Amino acid sequence: MITSTPTARELLTIAVDVAREAAATAHRMRVEGVSVAATKSTVTDVVTAADRAVERQVVAALRQRRPGDAVLGEEYGAGESGPADPDGVRWILDPIDGTVNYLYGLPYCAVSLAAEVAGEVVAGVVRNVVTGEEWTATLGGGAWRDGQRLHGSTATDLGQALVATGFGYDAGRRAHQARVVTELIPHIRDIRRMGAAALDLCLAAEGRVDAYYEKGLADWDLAAGGLVAREAGLLVTGLSGRPPGPDLVLAAPPALHGPLHDRLVDLDASGGP
Q1: Taking a C-beta distance cutoff of 8 angstroms, is the pair 72, 124 a contact?
Q2: Which residues bind Mg(2+) (predicted)?
Q3: Which residue numbers belong to the known binding site for Mg(2+)?
């Protein structure tokens, strides 16, 4: 049994090793052909056989490396690991973020794995299954891609900001989100909707989009990518003083955060179904 508390760097090393192997499995299964295994919230919210296989692989690898830890995964919840010390380590996993992209062969899907200690995310990795791009962060240690430290966008004018967002699977929620976008888009440069929240957060951390917001994110969508964004200097919040979570996640550099936040509040972006 593991008794010592690992450092964030030690946890990141494990996360990177496990995520790389998981991404390789997901890539191989996509090349071989994938099938829809089930649906989740709606018939458009799919689970592939690869999602389940990758999650089982990651859980097995983490059990081998750190058998006393808990794991929260998107497909199996906490059921693949026993309860852990609340002050111990919990791993938060999205085996394939961007499952619909993955199913359709679009190169915008990723394995996302974060380590949480005593309720705080301290290490995270997001690895694109198709391209091999990899973003990492540790609490207080910065955010990185391919040896380059990330600092987010330098944009200061909301009217020139490229903003990423996403849409839920429920038809009512999509309609509300579409109304928000319709009212927001005249006030920004443009919208991008790529379909994988963890990657959107990493692109915002890198400045390849200027900001990102979305309603409906779960822990596994936010944990690793959110840490990458924060460590790149972005403010990652909810609206009106609330923390980031299912109501809304907004990730933006300080110069854009305030005006984008206020616009989203005016548009009731955290409201609707």
Answers
A1: no
A2: 74, 94, 96-97, 221
A3: 74, 94, 96-97, 221
Residue numbers belonging to the annotated binding site: 74, 94, 96-97, 221
DSSP three-state, residue 187 = helix
Q: What whole-number distance in Å separates Cα of residue 230 and Cα of residue 201? A: 9
Helix (H) or strand (E) holding 203: helix 197-206
Average pLDDT over residues 181-194: 98
Alpha carbon distances (Å) from 108 to 38, 62, 210: 21, 25, 18
Q: How far apart are CA 261 and CA 5, in angstroms?
A: 37
Candidate from 120-124, 144-148, 204-208 with smallest mean pLDDT: 144-148
- Round to whole Å and give the CA distance between 167 and 38: 20
pLDDT at residue 80 greater than cutoff 60: no
d(CA 204, CA 164): 8
Sorted by where each starts, the structural domains of the chain and their CATH numbers stand as 8-147 (3.30.540.10), 158-266 (3.40.190.80)
* Interval 84-109: pLDDT, tens: 577 799 999 999 999 999 988 999 99
How far CA 205 is from CA of 34, 44, 209, 248, in Å, comes to: 31, 29, 8, 18
Query: Beta-carbon neighbour count of residue 33 at 10 Å?
Result: 7
Write the pLDDT tens digit of every residue in 11-35. Answer: 999 999 999 999 999 999 888 887 6
Mean pLDDT of 43-66: 84
**CB-CB contact of 45 with 25 (8 Å):** no
Whether the Cβ atoms of residue 215 and residue 168 lie closer than 8 Å to each other: yes
- Per-residue confidence (pLDDT) for residue 45, from 0 to 100: 45
